Fold:
Amino acid sequence: MIDLNKLARYALKTAIKREKKGQLKSDTMLILKHCAGELCEATEAFFNWIYFKRDRNKENLADELADVMTCALIAAEREGVDIEAEREGVDIEAALLRVQEKDARRAE
Structure:
């Protein structure tokens, strides 16, 4: 099983190092804006996978989706949101379930 909190700590630590090198801003608002750019890159990678169907394109899609997830992990760690368990009244699992249930109701 993946330890998401461990990945979040590592991702934030790396983002802070990159920030010191002038490569990235790691505060939450700017990392979420950065995530929007990563979503565009994931969309392009998905387009390439759908139309060209080469393994390299599928690997690129996986990498771009991982970039999006990394941005979310950085934001969660920066804001003290425990991805795997309830902490300080914030439960990501419960939030995911709420969103998925809401989407399921919309699908009915």
Notes: The chain is about 75% helix and 0% strand. The CA atoms of residues 64 and 99 lie 23 Å apart.
